[in-house]
Design goal:
The complex is a heterodimer.
Chain A: H1 2-23, H2 31-36, H3 42-52, H4 54-58, E1 76-79, E2 82-85, H5 102-111, H6 126-129, H7 134-145, E3 158-159, H8 169-176, H9 191-201, H10 207-210, E4 228-229, E5 236-237, H11 252-261, H12 273-281, H13 286-298
Antiparallel strand pairs in A: 1-2, 2-3, 4-5
Helix pairs in contact in A: 3-7, 5-7, 9-13, 11-12, 11-13
Chain B: H1 2-20, H2 24-46, H3 54-70, H4 89-92, H5 94-115, H6 123-144
Helix pairs in contact in B: 1-2, 1-3, 2-3, 2-6, 3-5, 3-6, 5-6
Chain lengths: 303, 149
């Protein structure tokens, strides 16, 4: 009897382990989607680079101007889960991504899977980048590869159990990663609003800070862009829906001007982590800032 | 002329505020409001929403200069508590904060110089004078203000 129970327990543990293993399998992109993208264009890639805010984490801490293009990594994100350190993504073959294929890069960006087939931590906002267009990713890859290589290693993450088990991220992805648009828009929505949705929900990864998370770090999509405490440091990322506490009183022009200049309608000025984001947004063409503004005015207000 | 009167009265209002209040938090917040009003006037002219006027431009620059001279004196130890968005980093890195104030002073002094007796002659000259001043807002807020926008 005892022995029989033991067998059952062992069988259950093995089954649970096997289920965990299967469920947490890093999943790569379908090759045909990638093949559909044409050859990358570095000029278009530069626009994707600023929209995606790559330099804000991957340039050296406090880098400015041209130094923003040396993607040595090293910026630390201190969160409740531990300290994540942004890696070197310069085209150095040893320390960066110089020996990656375009498919390796697309899998990192859109599936959060490394060339070695491991999960990345979602501090790297691939759950937003998953909504990107393959062509934009291909363009970005060409642009990144033309930046200066930096032959220095970024330090490793400092995480404690259980967050140091990468395989567990597979479960997180199953629960919280969706590559579909967050806000349903009518098929006849203005082109500008659709472009804004793409920029905000995809490369811009605005929801990573402005949408609240649960204890597992999963985004609460019912409270999309409704404001949230910062994952690191003090303060909070505000509600940026058209609610009374959010951007209700801002015109689309006010939002676009804020993204361009850093000034709010009452001439307070952008601060904290958003200052970096705004500097990136200032490098986009005006039509992109206006698209972001149009989308933010079109989404449902948080209450 | 009416606009000039408004700008000047905004400046005077600020001065009165400084004299009347003895709460450093209130003083520094009213100084920032004066700076914000000047930034708004400046941006309004640069965006073409307010017609360019050299006297108004000079008033905006003078206000920002005045703020830059006074602002750093209202962060005594202990005023990190209270109804304030000032970041604790100000007191952790007072030297860095005072350096940011010094940069603000240098840039506003240069703008005062450029404005001269009659204010910057045209919008392009004003733009050139005011842009470096306004970039201080972001640089300092990024490091020393608790983010809420």
């Amino acid at each position: 009897m005892l022995r029989k129970s033991l067998y059952v327990i062992v069988a259950l543990v093995v089954a649970a382990g096997a289920a965990f293993w299967l469920l947490t399998q890093p999943e790569r992109l379908d090759g045909s989607a990638l093949a559909a993208a044409g050859p990358g264009d570095p000029d278009r890639g530069e626009r994707v680079f600023w929209a995606g805010g790559c330099a804000s984490c991957h340039a050296r801490p406090d880098a400015e101007d041209d130094a923003l293009l040396e993607l040595a990594g090293g910026r630390a994100l201190e969160t409740d889960f531990g300290t994540f350190i942004a890696p070197n993504i310069s085209p150095d073959p040893e320390h960066g991504i110089g020996d990656w294929s375009e498919a390796d890069f697309a899998n990192a960006m859109m599936r959060g899977v490394s060339p070695e087939g491991e999960h990345y931590y979602p501090a790297f906002p691939y759950s937003s980048y998953a909504r990107m267009d393959e062509q934009d990713v291909a363009d970005l890859f060409v642009y990144l590869n033309a930046l200066p290589p930096v032959a220095e290693a970024a330090p490793a993450n400092e995480l404690s159990f259980p967050y140091n088990i990468r395989r567990g991220i597979g479960l997180w992805k199953l629960l919280y990663m969706h590559d579909q648009p967050v806000v349903d828009l009518p098929a006849d929505a203005p082109e500008e609003v659709l472009r804004g949705r793409y920029l905000v929900e995809g490369p811009g990864h605005c929801g990573e800070c402005h949408t609240p998370r649960n204890f597992m770090g999963g985004q609460n999509f019912d409270r999309w862009l409704a404001g949230a405490p910062m994952m690191e440091g003090e303060g909070s990322a505000p509600d940026i829906t058209p609610s009374e506490d959010g951007l209700g009183s801002w015109s689309a022009g006010d939002i676009a001007y804020y993204l361009e200049s850093g000034f709010t309608p009452d001439f307070d000025v952008v601060g904290g982590a958003m200052a970096d984001v705004q500097r990136n947004m200032a490098r986009l063409p005006d039509e992109d800032r206006r698209a972001i503004a149009a989308y933010l005015k079109a989404i449902p207000a948080a209450n | 002329m009416k606009r000039l009167a408004i700008s000047v009265s905004a400046l005077l209002f600020t001065m009165v505020g400084v004299a009347a209040a003895d709460d450093p938090i209130v003083v520094r917040q009213s100084l920032m409001q004066a700076a914000a009003a000047s930034a708004a006037t400046s941006a309004g002219m640069m965006k073409g929403e307010i017609e360019y006027n050299p006297t108004v431009a000079k008033a905006a620059i003078a206000t920002l200069y005045g703020v830059s001279q006074a602002y750093g004196d209202y962060f005594p130890e202990g005023t990190q508590e209270g109804d304030s968005d000032a970041s604790p980093r100000i007191w952790e890195d007072m030297e860095g904060f005072q350096q940011a104030i010094a940069d603000f002073q240098t840039d506003t002094a240069a703008a005062v110089q450029a404005a001269g007796e009659d204010g910057p002659a045209d919008l392009a000259a004003f733009q050139q004078a005011i842009q470096p001043v306004l970039s201080n807002c972001k640089d300092c807020h990024e490091d020393f203000r608790i983010q809420d926008n």
